[in-house]
UniProtKB/TrEMBL annotation:
Name this polypeptide is given: Ectonucleotide pyrophosphatase/phosphodiesterase 7
Region (Disordered), start-end ranges: 458-478
Native organism taxonomy: Eukaryota, Metazoa, Chordata, Craniata, Vertebrata
Stretch forming the signal peptide: 1-17
Basic and acidic residues bias spans: 466-478
A Pfam family annotated for this UniProt entry: Phosphodiest
Organism: Astatotilapia calliptera (Eastern happy)
InterPro entries: Alkaline_phosphatase_core_sf, Phosphodiest/P_Trfase
Keywords: Membrane, Signal, Transmembrane, Transmembrane helix
Transmembrane domains' residue ranges: 428-452
């Protein structure tokens, strides 16, 4: 009976102790820039297929508008819509001075990125975890004075297509996880975006690049295994936006602002055009109506909105950095300023409802179900999912765990919940263990007393030899 009681206490402590187990799960967030949701449909992708079998595949995900690289990547890192995190364009600009910086130069403008929203690296680090980032947009900047702990920023004229470098970078990231005990890494590849722009999403070159991505996905999973990480590492692979074929050469009537009757660049104090299908304009004082009226309805595939009237589903209005007039074109078109200077065969930056703008999404690891296909969800929801797996308290964000929780195995949900309630669980455990210990002592004392009584009655003592030992065992502090 005593033995049974001890077993009960051991069982109770192990059951209660399990959630406090602190072998934390790790997360690797990978972005293959411009990987459209359906790029695996016309190419053999054995490694992506295997990953779907071993984990979760979403039909597609919906990026935030504006569907360009820096803004949408910052949404992955923060769970906020673009109007809320403030990185509203790839280019830093100043409407007063007219200064514009390129995508690459803008990476180093802290004030552009650090506009009130913390990326997951900083939040994780503030809560005692370690974070890293390789080439991911936003990596070069500091946030409220803090940088991501382990970081690598690509040089200015970087060859984003080099498969050998992709493998070297993969091994570097895995060694951060293994040797530096990093909990979270964001990892960026510049393809198939580059190839999609240059040759178009329907080109053979794009299909070849998707094969290279697929080989790399296989390499990434192999490398995780070689580094002994498989049982702790969750790998999420997604993208920032898709890609759409651009028509020109007489196939369509191009959109060129300078040719629109009644429109004049002289009415503008600042403009951002010749950037794919999107544009933003600042009219000179008193010229807003003139500019708006000239452009509105001027081309059947050009959308013209005053900032405050932008359709709600785009969530691209509530930010001081957004200029008073917003333009975007339908898929197939780009917006030219003075004359056509854009020659890409593929573009993105369109309405995020356009199917061509939807990225892919895969996830594999101990937190995720196996062989599960899920419906589409917005990319703002990836941030709360990652925080949940890491067991950190998220910042204020626009995502919802409810949108992605069904991808997780139940024990991960329990573990992540317990980590945010670790203190409570520890207290509860100590309390319950104390109660259990006390009950065992009371129970044992009663048993001993009863046995002693029986022995006295029968005047037999042989069976009591082991009593003192058991009394010692009661001293064990639970
Ligand atoms: C733009 O430049 C002006 C003049 O240098 C400066 O006062 C202002 O703070 C700048 N604004 C931004 C958003 O950088
Ligand atoms: C965000 O940037 C704008 C200028 O672009 C600035 O006026 C504003 O104060 C910044 N907000 C924060 C919280 O950094
Ligand atoms: C590709 O990357 C490898 C490893 O970093 C480097 O040695 C090689 O020179 C690169 N090749 C090209 C064509 O950039
Ligand atoms: Zn991109």
């Amino acid at each position: 009976m005593l033995w049974t009681a001890s077993l009960c206490v051991l069982w109770a402590s192990s059951v209660l102790g399990a959630p406090v187990n602190n072998e934390k799960q790790k997360v690797l967030l990978i972005s293959f820039d411009g990987f459209r949701w359906d790029y695996d449909r016309d190419v053999d992708t054995p490694n992506l297929d295997q990953m779907a079998e071993d984990g979760v595949k979403a039909l597609y995900v919906t990026p935030p508008y504006l569907t360009i690289t820096s803004p949408t990547h910052f949404t992955l890192l923060t769970g906020r819509y673009i109007e809320n995190h403030g990185v509203i364009h790839n280019m830093f600009f100043n409407t007063t001075t007219g200064e514009k910086k390129s995508y690459y130069q803008s990476q180093f403008v802290d004030q552009w990125w650090d506009n009130g929203t913390l990326p997951i690296w900083i939040t994780a680090q503030r809560q005692g975890l370690k974070a890293g980032s390789l080439h991911f947009p936003g990596t070069a900047s500091s946030y409220q004075g803090q940088f991501v702990m382990h970081k690598e920023v690509e040089p200015q004229l970087y060859n984003y297509k080099n498969e050998t470098a992709w493998r070297e970078n993969t091994d570097k990231v895995m060694s951060w996880f293994r040797d530096k005990n990093v909990n979270f890494v964001s990892f960026y590849f510049g393809e198939p975006d580059g190839t999609g722009h240059r040759y178009g999403p329907d080109s053979n070159e794009r299909r070849e690049m998707v094969k290279q991505v697929d080989r790399t996905v296989g390499y990434i999973r192999q490398s995780a295994e070689r580094h002994g990480l498989t049982h702790r590492l969750n790998i999420i692979i997604t993208s920032d936006h898709g890609m759409s074929t651009v028509y020109r050469n007489g196939l369509v009537e191009e959109i060129t602002l300078s040719k629109i009757p009644g429109f004049s660049f002289g009415d503008l104090s600042f403009h951002l055009v010749d950037y794919g299908p999107s544009g933003m304009l600042s009219p000179k004082p008193g010229r807003l109506e003139a500019v708006y009226n000239a452009l509105k309805g001027a081309h059947p595939h050009l959308h013209v909105y005053k900032k405050e009237d932008v359709p709600e589903h785009l969530r691209f209005t509530k930010n001081d950095r957004i200029l008073p007039i917003i333009l975007w074109a339908d898929p197939g078109y780009v917006i030219n300023g003075y004359f056509p200077v854009q020659f890409n065969k593929g573009e993105h930056g369109y309405d995020n409802q356009a199917m061509d703008m939807k990225p892919f999404f895969r996830a594999v690891g101990p937190a995720f179900h196996k062989n599960l296909k899920v419906g589409p969800f917005e990319t703002v929801n990836i941030y709360p999912l990652m925080c949940h797996i890491l067991g950190i308290e998220p910042e204020v964000n626009d995502g919802h765990l409810d949108a992605t929780k069904h991808m997780l195995v139940t024990s991960t949900a329990a573990r992540a919940e317990s980590s945010s309630h670790r203190k409570y669980m520890k207290n509860a455990f100590t309390g319950l263990a104390a109660v259990a210990g006390f009950l065992v002592i009371v129970f044992a004392a009663a048993v001993v007393q009863r046995l002693l009584k029986q022995k006295r009655k029968t005047k037999r003592s042989g069976s009591l030899r082991d009593l003192p030992e058991k009394e010692d065992a009661h001293q064990t502090p639970f």
